[in-house]
Amino acid sequence: MNHKEQYHQWIQQFITRNSTVIDMTCGNGYDTLFLAPLSKKVVAIDIQITAIENTKVRTQNFDNIEYINNDHSQVDYTKYAPIEGALYNLGYLPGSDKSIITEASSTVESLKKLIPNIQSFLVISCYRGHPGGNEEYLAVKAYIESLNAKVIVLDYPTPLSPVTFCIDLT
Question: What is the number of domains present in the chain?
Answer without folding.
Answer: 1
